[in-house]
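## tool: complex_structure
## caller: assistant
## args:
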Amino acid sequence: MVRVASEILNGRVPEGPVDQIWDKHRFNMKLVNPANKRKFSVIVVGTGLAGGAAAASMAELGYHVKSFCYQDSPRRAHSIAAQGGINAAKNYPNDGDSIWRLFYDTVKGGDYRAREANVYRLAQISNNIIDQCVSQGVPFAREYGGTLANRSFGGAQVSRTFYCRGQTGQQLLLGAYQALMRQVGLGKVEMFARREMLDLITIDGVARGIVVRNLSTGKLEAHTADAVVLCTGGYGNVYYLSTNAKGCNVTAAWRCHKKGAYFANPCYTQIHPTCIPVSGDYQSKLTLMSESLRNDGRVWVPKNADDSRRPSDIPEEDRDYYLERRYPSFGNLVPRDVASRAAKERCDAGFGVNDSGLAVYLDFRDAINRDGEDTIRKKYGNLFHMYHKITAEDPYQVPMKIFPAVHYTMGGLWVDYQLMSNVPGLFVCGEANFSDHGANRLGASALMQGLSDGYFVIPYTIGDHLARTKFEHIPEDHPECLAAIQNAQSRIDQLMSVQGRRTVDSFHRELGLIMWDHCGMARNKTGLETAISQIRDLREEFWKDVRVLGEGESLNQSLEKAGRVADFLEFGEIMCVDALNREESCGGHFREEHQTEDGEAKRNDEDYSYVAAWEFDGVGEEPTLHKEPLTFPNVPPTTRSYK
Amino acid sequence: MSDETLNLTLRVWRQDNSDSEGEFRDYKLSGVSTHMSFLEMLDVLNEQLIEAGEMPVAFDHDCREGICGMCSLMINGQAHGPDNATTTCQLHMRRFQDGDTIVIEPWRAAAFPVLRDLVVDRSAFDRIIQSGGYVSTNTGNAPDGNAIPIPGKVQEVAMDAAACIGCGACVAACKNASAMLFVSAKVSQLAVLPQGHAERTGRVLNMVAQMDEEGFGHCTNTSECEAACPAEISVSNIARLNREYVRATLVNRD
Amino acid sequence: MDIVYKTLGLPAELLSKVPGIGPIVKACCTSVGQKILMAITGLSLVGFLVVHLGGNFNLFAGEAAFNGYAEKLHSLGPLLAIAETKLFAIFALHLGLALSTRAMSARARKSGYEKTESKQSGFLIPNGGAANMMFITGLILGGYVVLHVLDMKINIWKFDAGESKYALVRMVLRDPLHWGVYLVALIALGIHLSHGISSAFQTLGISHPRWNKILRFLSVALAWLIAGGFMSLLVWAYAFEAR
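## result:
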């Protein structure tokens, strides 16, 4: 049985009507005098949309910021790979959108497992984000007359998605990166690239610094500041194969968790429906095909399980457009979790295509016939090109083959309305926190959340924390810093000293398979229990048999990977524990025991309308569950239906 | 699609750190599937090396979907390998023949020092952006996104330039190790957009000065950069940079 | 090497400190500025070549016409001297910039590749082939200009042409060794200009997607028209009777 903390976890959401909370709260927060701002320093870990935007905005305000990323340049953060777009409630197309509708769609899309007040704030800020990015020179798509263009996206019936061809994330990230570089040039931000955070430094329970490893020299460094902002993304790579970048990891968040920060809803993972299927066991990552493709592509499988004809030879009457069949009102534009599960259902039933039987068709034939190849090329040219590159098949001629893949993680470190974790002084933004997407994220809202947190939330809320707290200067040779360095060093030494036989990647692959099989698109009690014991065994084997060559004090990519995989091996377990605890199906979390007769997810609002925030009690120990109850006075929960 | 396998000889540059002398080492790799990406092939090589007790080859990579710009590699003398408009991570082994010898080298430029094996330091690009590759707009003071209309065609030109992924292939492929394509892409994007107009004079002067400071070479309009660019950035951006530069030199008041 | 470079760059260094023109001189010293000067001087030299070729076509009109043209030029006296000095200065600047940018690229890549392979298709298209031969063809042309001045102005080989420039030109060009050297130099000129002219436009920022192709075509055509025009004189020397 799970150990549940008796105290209710308080999200510190201010009182009031949901549409006024943020405005009132902004007034109530304490301000830092402009002259005093330069006396405060803030550490920002990660330079994606949230981290880049946060570091730049706080530096603009006058804080001294230290920014860290593991890549060779802050411009590489994986936000760059987001393709489709970013939502905003501008209502430029005049199709009935509003802040309230975006709020409503996002709460519903998250299957009523997000905090209402956070989501409302997100919808409110969405419009400022577009303005901010335009003023930075982000080349959003425009109409001939010069106004901003919009397109529709899964889970919404209005066109509210702003985009830059198929590389919206890249352009938004470069906007934030350029703002950050400007501050570096002005001396307001100190940039530390090729640094990986290995530990959080807390002094009297308050976050005051971090330990990083300089990846090009291997040296450990302690950095101190008055607050730490974690913007380190999600943990999808626990599955080994995902659409995340190879370097994405849970280490920073996990080390904070081990220092006391609660990890919330780790079982909420998003499986994206349109990815290029796996082709061999050497495969290192999965490639996403933007969800926007579902605007024009039609998803189908053959009606006959053993139909071996080429897709173009299969006549209309032998095709099963299963999304259009099952969900006539949303059709191919159902939210991601629904589309993914429907694909899995068809493949499990034996209708899958490709050699593996693990793929469905995404067909542009009708769209090309309707709009012409040129129009399609203009909209999706780069995606088609990428697909062609990877698979050597031309999607203008034959339908794409797609299959769901791990894409995004809604869970993350628990934060209150101020985006501060339960460790005072430790703030968490973007995908790394749990706050805004509930159990499922709608398309084009990850970019929105990252930038909202970074540009428009953290710059205010951090001021409140700094103004309320009295800080003493912490030198970088403070005993707590030295202890944290020592701690990180001994873990590295431990990894280097095993000298076993197996490579790090082989462990990572094995862990990924366990997670995918038992904690993937569909979960059940037995499977999750099996997974937990398998993960424990694998972890034990890892520490006995991993082989890391070379030295700690040099550029050593095996060592980097080993540290990350070691953390994933601890983290995977808590995901399964959370999934096991949540006896319901909601959003990306589908428990086979809890489904309707026609296979739809069955939520249990009575017992599970809460955030599950886990407290660390030791590796392999059952964590303690803290519950933050969720209420929905404004968007009363209904069964999510896209039929 | 054919399921062939290849037997390859890899001639890889190995260098322990920026101070040490490097050398080429030859490795045999067999049974390489033609469906593998080039980096997956290197993953397989590394697994093999680790098992044999040799340090794996260090190389930069991250997103593996052609957008982050972190992967590099001079493959048989071509930046990002033989395909046009393709990064190394998107290059597949079906482009190679059984029995091939593949020479793999790091980007070579004085401004991109080698850190280890195939990993180079490209922070010079960051410093160039710091010198002016931005619009000075603080968070919060933006007008409505539709306040300034930008004709679709102009936006397209800006987007073409903005697509640069900052990988450094232009520098690597250029016989003069010039960074003109990279710098011109950013100068162009911000020069054609109204948002960038206020700072266009200082921007081009400062970015060119920083480019020289970092030790990149000059541009001889050979266009090899354009051919090597995975994001298909056009050399017409270089012409625009030159134009901006002349203009800025004449009107600059500093 | 660095010392040589610094010494050569000294005048520019000093000029850049002069108020008023300082910033412009400074701008001209950057990699982009140097290339712009290179383009301007290069196009000026092309202008000279066109005029020079026009004058030389008098050879076809016979001895009287050509010598008359030569005399007219010399009657300009100090004006000619000024023009020649200017021409020499432009030439020297063009050459100096070539050496300076060459040094720049040598510093930009200290250790080269084991293997290099172009990703451009088509060798004969100006960008690709000719662009990689600018320095060598430039050196050939530099040497050729010295020889040409020694030949025609000083008559260093003492051809017995009396006072007639027409006769001198004919004698020089009929000398097999000279003929061969001149031919090589003119081929180098064609190659040099076939990249140089269109490259100069690009460097000066004269570029537009609609006009680039035609501009490039015209540039290459002009390059080979000039080279071909001079080559026609080689044909003239052997194939035409003296008039």
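## assistant note: Helices of chain B lie at 38-51, 123-130, 152-162, 169-173, 180-192, 200-213, 224-228, 236-251. Chain B touches chain A through 79 residues (CB under 8 Å). Handing back to user.
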